[in-house]
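>> received
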Amino acid sequence: MKNFYTKLLVPALIVFGCAKDDDKKTGTPNDTSDPRYQKAVFDDVDVQTVSYTADGSLQMDIYTPVGDDYDRRAVVVFAHGGSFIGGHKSLPDMVRLCETFARHGYVAASINYRLGPGTSMFLDSLQVLGVVARAVHDGKAAIRYLRKSFVEDGNPFGIDTSAIIGAGNSAGAILMLHLAYMNNSQIIPPHLMQIIQNEGGIEGERGNDGYSSRVHGVINLAGAIHKLDYIQSGMVPVYNAHGDNDKTVPFDCGVVLSSFPAPQFRNVLCGSYEINNRAMAVNIRSKLKVYEGADHCPWIGGGAEPTELMDELEEEMLDFVYREVIL
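>> returned
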């Protein structure tokens, strides 16, 4: 039986705009002799749940290392998978990843975002686009919330606003890829721009206005992007992991859900292989981890439980973020 994401993930085109980033480096250690970010230096993790939208309807879990007195820590914000109709912030893979990053000295967050009404929405491609646009607006609000907390609330989570990484698995990776790279309204097709405008514009209307939704790096676990030319020189680095026999999200460019019986419900996206190629072509730092012969998300099994492949994957993600974002 296919795992949770394989059964549910039906990626759609999304658009995401980034505000101007005025962050300044606030003290994240860049000394290679400092074990923070390189080793799991903390044994225990604290989890705090906060409401981050203007109407209080959505929450995220914020993980911090217990016993850490450092007050300028890099942040990794995770978005779960589930086809924009399922999943939640407390899935086992999200908990595992957040705990791992927090033990290495990061602040990690796992967000809930608005989901669609169910599989019936895939009968209407425009409805799908609206659902995904709303989810992206929620992701933006979560990042803005963290920056707002730094400025207005005395930095209660001890974050470094100049080192925020957007991370996601499957549908969540699709969200974060567009969050980071789709920021030029001149490239977005007009019909998509109209949908975005109907949902509140590029930044949306989910609260925490006046703060940037920019990230400084991306972790892409089995995600894909609508247009490769969204990725332009000077943009943020990306870590990619993907099975090269993925029948849900294409490894290169192709239809999503290639085994799905109704072709009219498919979208064409470009997966991690082509994302990595494009990034390198425009001099963006990028790494691709290929799982040869593997289908969708081999690092998780049924119920989003991590498999033994998660250990190596975590090590690679941690190393990439440290070298390409922190240093």
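>> The first helix runs from residue 4 to 8.
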